């Protein structure tokens, strides 16, 4: 074990991780930040007194805020409407965007299409796609398969940061895409590519490059097994925009979610569909989450959820069946299992609908995941419909949060939800009390509690 030296300022020993830069008060075998073993070494002594901050000539003079030029901060459209929606109208010159997602979800395909649209559109000039994970030939084959070939789209297979910057110096692109930030290595930092120190150094260098040149940069980021962006937590603070690309391996639907956005809303969602010939936008995805059956079926309820600012139709299905098990099974897919269990308890206690001796299965259609409380009422109605074998009438939706006392509470954006349902042909809605006047084309029935909702179901 290394011998500690006294910190010149505090008189206490100090140690530093050579991989991520974390400093600790005493020596440990494993770094508490990055988890690497044997990387904690004796830290250099700190200066005895803080140095005085000097002055320097500013790079640009300060101006009154009303005189600052806005042209440099106006978003430029990428050519992909769903991507522009999430970005807030397009990508801002000098902005650094981090796109994270699981392997195989389609990140590279989406960005290759974005590079092609950028080059073909001509608004930002040529685009440069730097790949550190695949060879140039592999990317060329994908571009040919998806129809993303263009003479102004340049491809560089580099895993060395100075080499990638040399491509930028030579080509002067209007858009730079780096796939991925975990595979690029900088000579100014220690550690292996993908390590905490390397990811931080590469990202910092690319952020400086973007700000100096006004060059928009999109970085591909890997995720850990729990869905978080791999690398240091400071990575998300360094960039301007963080996007999460999500999708089920068994479904063609892909959702692009905004996590952080300094230039626009951080709660927008874009919808795409992954196919054999590339990735396509889905500007009206509500039909993907609703079953196509015309006749009402027991155990189904349609609702409207709000993803960001976009209302989407979704269908909740439930199945209640007798069981021979001493402990009945409860299974939920696409729904919060805790809230499903809560709805079963509310139906039992407040609605006198017993399911303690039956298996209950609840799921969404199309692989959609819903976590907002507005799905409580349709979930309860779907379970009750399956239990009573009474279908909800065609053209009916349900929206509302259900409390433990059985009351139905208001949720946000009810007017927008009802307008979307009316646009798609729904005629009747079960909503909480005092939700305001409904939009034209749809009538509403206000249900104050779960008992009144069940009475509405039984009258059908």
From TrEMBL:
UniProt region (Lon-protease-like), positions on chain: 359-460
Record bears the keyword DNA repair: yes
Coiled coil: none
GO cellular component: cytosol
Motif annotated as RadA KNRFG motif, chain positions: 260-264
Transferase recorded as keyword: no
Database matches in InterPro entries: AAA+_ATPase, DNA_repair_RadA, P-loop_NTPase, RecA_ATP-bd, Ribosomal_Su5_D2-typ_SF, Ribsml_uS5_D2-typ_fold_subgr, Rubredoxin_2
SUPFAM superfamilies listed in its UniProt record: P-loop containing nucleoside triphosphate hydrolases (SSF52540), Ribosomal protein S5 domain 2-like (SSF54211)
PROSITE patterns: RECA_2
Notes concerning its domains: The middle region has homology to RecA with ATPase motifs including the RadA KNRFG motif, while the C-terminus is homologous to Lon protease.
PANTHER family attached to this UniProt entry: DNA REPAIR PROTEIN RADA (PTHR32472), DNA REPAIR PROTEIN RADA-LIKE PROTEIN (PTHR32472:SF10)
Stated family: Belongs to the RecA family. RadA subfamily.
Described function: Plays a role in repairing double-strand DNA breaks, probably involving stabilizing or processing branched DNA or blocked replication forks.
Name of this protein: DNA repair protein RadA
Species whose genome carries this gene: Actinopolyspora saharensis
């Amino acid at each position: 074990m290394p011998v500690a030296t006294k910190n010149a300022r505090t008189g206490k020993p100090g140690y530093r991780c050579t991989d991520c830069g974390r400093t600790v008060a005493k020596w440990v075998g494993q770094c508490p930040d990055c988890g690497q073993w044997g990387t904690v070494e004796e830290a250099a002594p700190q200066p005895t007194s803080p140095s005085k901050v000097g002055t320097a000539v500013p790079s640009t003079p300060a101006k009154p805020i009303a005189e600052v030029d806005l042209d440099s901060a106006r978003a430029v459209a990428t050519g992909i409407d769903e991507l522009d929606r999430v970005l807030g109208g397009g990508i801002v010159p000098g902005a650094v965007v981090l796109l994270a997602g699981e392997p195989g979800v389609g990140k590279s395909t989406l960005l290759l299409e974005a590079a092609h649209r950028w080059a073909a559109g001509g608004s930002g000039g040529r685009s440069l796609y730097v790949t550190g994970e695949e060879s140039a030939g592999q990317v060329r084959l994908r571009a040919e398969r998806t129809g993303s070939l263009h003479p102004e789209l340049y491809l560089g297979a580099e895993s060395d940061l100075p080499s990638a910057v040399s491509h930028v110096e030579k080509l002067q692109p209007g858009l730079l895409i780096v796939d991925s930030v975990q595979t690029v290595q900088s000579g100014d930092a220690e550690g292996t590519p993908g390590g905490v120190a390397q990811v931080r150094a590469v990202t910092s260098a690319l952020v400086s490059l973007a700000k100096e040149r006004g060059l928009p940069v999109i970085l591909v980021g890997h995720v850990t097994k729990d869905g978080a962006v791999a690398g240091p937590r400071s990575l998300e603070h360094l960039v301007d925009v963080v996007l999460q690309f999500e999708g089920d391996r068994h479904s063609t639907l892909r959702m692009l979610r905004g996590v952080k956005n300094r230039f626009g809303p951080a709660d927008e969602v874009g919808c795409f569909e992954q196919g054999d010939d590339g990735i396509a936008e889905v500007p009206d995805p509500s039909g993907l989450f609703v079953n196509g059956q015309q006749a009402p079926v027991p155990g189904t309820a349609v609702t409207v959820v709000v993803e960001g600012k976009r209302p989407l139709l979704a269908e909740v299905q439930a199945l209640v069946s007798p069981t021979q098990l001493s402990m009945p099974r409860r299974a939920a897919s696409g729904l919060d299992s805790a809230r499903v269990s809560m709805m079963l308890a509310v139906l039992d206690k407040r609605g006198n609908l017993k399911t303690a001796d039956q298996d209950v299965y609840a799921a969404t259609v199309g692989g959609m995941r819903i976590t907002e409380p507005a799905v409580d009422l349709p979930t309860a109605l779907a379970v009750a419909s399956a239990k009573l074998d009474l279908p909800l009438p065609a053209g009916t939706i349900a929206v509302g949060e259900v409390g433990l006392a059985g009351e139905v509470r208001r949720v946000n954006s009810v007017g927008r939800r009802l307008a979307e349902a009316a646009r798609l042909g729904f005629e009747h809605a079960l909503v909480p009390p005092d939700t305001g006047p409904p939009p034209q084309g749809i009538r509403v029935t206000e249900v104050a509690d779960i008992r009144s909702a069940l009475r509405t179901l039984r009258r059908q």
